Amino acid sequence: MATLPVHRWRMAPDGYATYRQLRALGLRPGGQDVAAQVERPRRRRGPLVAYLYRIDRAKPVRPMTPAKWAALAKANAARRLCPECRRDAGYVIPPSLGMCSACAFPDNAPEGASWNSSPHTAR
Question: What is the pTM of this model?
Fold first, then answer.
């Protein structure tokens, strides 16, 4: 394997872009190999490395189909569903808790709060 050209931070030549820069332009690498890399030196650790792709070889991003939109909506809805009370929490449930805040902290709920009226909490 040939070695990649290495450029210093902010010194990459025109015609190259990182993955995020390609995405901002509405492009994707499209199967091409990494063309170069940029290194940002750090004091006590190894350098930060960003891989560069050629813009002229990049392809347009594939459009979202209705099936992809539906699958994404279903996955996001599943992340909002509390496994304890089986209700939509209204936000993405944090993995650290594993349940909505009303189920995780039932003592902090004000008396008679409708959002904490799940059947498994003791009153």
Answer: 0.64
